[in-house]
Write a structure and sequence with these properties.
single chain, about 140 residues, 3 helices, 5 strands
């Protein structure tokens, strides 16, 4: 299979996925390919974790039929991931107990991203996370 990394333009990639857990893997692969194409391999691992958490949350915690994922290059060494769904419920980081198996996704996003947030938009919400190449890289 041949994939074009930037279907929207050289500095932005976006795709819509069926709201199924299998889509989490595809979104992660797509975002990683885009970052490699843009020459930002330093962001691949962090972006993979962030997009995994955000898409999985949209699939598991909403009744959306489709989930959108995009990545935009916002600087020489930074990118912004956006995940959209049709739910109007904004996400909040959990407070899991040490024995809980779930509830840490947004805490992980908060730890990995330079900044993150959510906003209500027409037809649902978007959750975004800004990633930057660490200064040591």
């Amino acid at each position: 299979m041949t994939m074009t990394a930037a279907t929207v333009g050289p500095q932005r990639y976006q795709e819509r996925y069926a709201a199924r857990l299998e889509s989490v893997t595809q979104a992660r692969r797509d975002i990683a390919l885009v970052l490699q194409t843009w020459g930002l391999p330093q962001l691949v691992d962090v972006a993979a974790q962030v997009v995994t958490e955000l898409v999985a949350n949209a699939v598991e915690h909403t009744d959306a039929a489709m989930v959108g994922a995009s990545i935009t290059r916002v600087g020489k060494e930074s990118a912004r991931i956006v995940v959209t769904d049709t739910s109007r419920t904004r996400p909040t980081p959990g407070t899991p107990s040490p024995n809980d198996e779930h509830g840490r996704g947004l805490l992980l996003v908060e730890a990995l991203a330079h900044a993150w947030g959510s906003e209500l938009v027409r037809g649902g919400k978007r959750i975004w996370a800004e990633l930057r190449v660490p200064a040591a890289c």
